[in-house]
Amino acid sequence: MPSGSLEQPSWLSERDGEHIVIIGAGVIGVSTAYHCRQHPLFDAKKDRITIIEAVCAAAGASGKAGGLLAEDWHGQATASLGKLSFALHDALAKKHKGGTRWDYRRTNAISIECDAKRKMRSPQIGKSKVPKEVDWIDGDLVTRYNDLGDTSTMAQVHPRRFCRALLADTRAQGCVRYVLGRVSDIHRGRVCYTPVRFDDFAGTEYGRTTAENSRPEDAVPIPDETRFEQDDELITISDATRIVITAGPWSARILGDRADSLPISGQRAHSITLRTPQAVSPHAVFTECRFADGTRSNPEMYARVDEVYTCGEGDSDVPLPQTAADVVVDHARTQALIDQTLELSPVLRDLARSTAATVVGSRQACYLPIVTGVTRRARGTGAISDTERSQDAADGRHNGVGDTAGLKGQLYGTAGGPLVGKLCAGLYIAAGHSCWGISLAPGTGKVMAEIIWDGDVARQAWLEHSSRASSDSAAQVGWKKKPLSADIRWLDPLNAVDELW
Questions:
Q1: pLDDT per position as a tens digit, 372-401
Q2: Long-range contacts made by residues 212-218, C-beta under 8 angstroms, separation at least 24?
Q3: What gap in Å lies between CA 83 and CA 40, rounded to an integer?
Q4: How confident is the model at residue 77 (pLDDT cuts 50, 70, 90)?
């Protein structure tokens, strides 16, 4: 073991080298694997990483999210993580050609209020005009407009392409194994899983590829290491030194009868994509609308390089299914999103009328990983009001830095997520990012890598840095211990389970 890493669990003290097993190949798991492999303490001669995924990479929310990246839209609890992640997204795009591989680009964000029954034609909307470049929105419907962000602090990616491209780049470094399987048990360095046949999911809604998708990142990857034995065969990894749960809303289920230890559940969210043969302006559009049929709704629309993505409000009508392959898509909800998008966009409406081929790229649903029991996060920006923060403090959820010293389990969470850190010896969690998983993924992966590799060294430096953060001279202090990349002094410790096994 490298001298700077976390102490080895007692049951694996005789083993040489790290075997990090990551459960879940969504964007958080893939980012964690990438940064663990990039960490300077990773020794290619004896360390290795295994990623186990139940369906396919980015099968859940990581493949169906909007892909909006914001540097400063986060609540106080995750502000520094958001800033770190935004910078890492930019760095990853430059290093791995993200502009062409996963459509990384800077973007703008606006909010509009629309009323199809009033159809106002006024040059003045509030105190400003709708930007001329937003030519794909019907300005006749807009009654109010506001700028929310510009290219200095906003960007976007195609989430599925980003996740799968980062996975490919991680595997290309060597010492990284990716397998398809359903984990049935974890215990003290042991991970048991049942291999999954790719044919089990052929033709299901989650993995449907459309004709316009021609990039390698769009294809469902079949890892060459995957074993395709019968489904009743159980494979056991018995030498895991670190087990990292990054299974999104399914994270708690990985613990089996100990699932109540993790307050994570899922909320279903629907979305659609409409193809745009010609690029439209790079804007994320947040709406409050009354449509022609009298219904009121708040769809969010994100213009991508070759399509417009629209998502609606979440619902709890259907409980979290067994896997992402079993997610039920409510076609009435997706049709409503299609109709609303076409009503708001004359460009897309005219395209739908003039072409024989449908403009609909996909109808889909996923489950956002929600931290339950401590959730007071508002939808959208993730901000927490002063009143809510005061109530959280009264409930004992916002402990000061001094209160964290006695925790053996280094688990950090916010009022609404995510949960990031150590559950007990050899067991870690990174999940519960809600709608901010894509945006916060690189920073979460980097922090997780440092928690795993630098362990208590990183934690102690973080505590020291936090205690001095208010001093102007703090930046000049030469730390003997390595602090976490993100200043997470505002991430609140939950009651971590000191010993799950």
A1: 764 333 233 233 333 333 333 333 322 222
A2: 212/275, 212/306, 212/361, 215/101, 215/161, 216/168, 217/101, 217/102, 217/158, 217/160, 217/161, 217/162, 217/164, 217/165, 217/168, 218/160, 218/161, 218/164
A3: 23
A4: confident
